[in-house]
Amino acid sequence: MCSFDFTLVCVYTQAMIVVAAAVIENREGRILIARRKADITLGGYWEFPGGKLEEGESPYECAVRELREEMDLHIEAGDVLIETTYDYGDRVVRLIAVKALMVGGHIRLHDHDDIRWVTVHEMGDYLFAPADEAVVDHLLETHRRHPTGQNLQDS
Questions:
Q1: Phi first, then psi: what are they for 139, rounded to 5°?
Q2: Cα separations (Å) of 97 from 14, 18, 43, 55, 136?
Q3: How far apart are CA 129 and CA 54, in angstroms?
Q4: Which residue of 32, 71, 113, 144 has the smallest Cβ count within 10 Å?
Q5: How buried is residue 73: exposed, middle or buried, by Cβ count under 10 Å (0-12/13-18/19+)?
Q6: Which of 25, 39, 22 is closest to 112 using CA atoms?
Q7: What is the pLDDT along the chain (155 residues), one digit of tens a residue?
């Protein structure tokens, strides 16, 4: 009788898209989320604003550039909160979420049709893009471990 040892190897044949998302917290501890326009990919889903990294660009630089382009918002990007990968079937997204502070500008929407400043607990009321759900989970877990009002910038 023969025995076989099989090793399963996963190979992504889809394109890997690397994006940076800004998790912007205001002085009241609320976090900015934005709803994607209905006529674009993942339309109607909520997300942490950001976009695709350009060649040679860091996640921090990308977040600053994308927020300026998408929302006319000026931010300072800080530490990476979480990196996650999500397979949408036709593409794989590697999302790098960075802490950020709003330092200027007036929000104008280009790729989104609505924004909200929400608490971590209110995030459950919104339908987030699948790749962003890991960021929400991370924020909820961080808040659960530090419920005494420690804000994102202090974590």
A1: -65, -40
A2: 22, 11, 20, 18, 10
A3: 21
A4: 144
A5: buried
A6: 39
A7: 445 454 444 454 567 999 999 999 988 889 999 999 999 888 899 999 999 999 999 999 999 999 999 999 999 999 999 999 999 988 999 999 999 999 998 899 988 999 999 999 999 999 999 999 999 999 999 888 876 555 555 54
Q: Is 54 helix (H, G, I), strand (E, B) or coil?
A: coil
The answer to whether 47 and 36 have CB atoms below 8 angstroms apart is: yes
Alpha-carbon gap, residue 66 to 69, rounded angstroms? 5
Measured between its terminal Cα atoms, the distance across the chain in Å is 58
- Residue showing tokens 């898209």: 17
What amino acid occupies position 56? G
Name the fold adopted by 15-147: Nucleoside Triphosphate Pyrophosphohydrolase (3.90.79)
Burial annotation 76-95 (CB, 10 A radius, 16+ → b, else e):
ebbeebbebeeeeeeebbeb
Give me the amino acid identity at 41: T
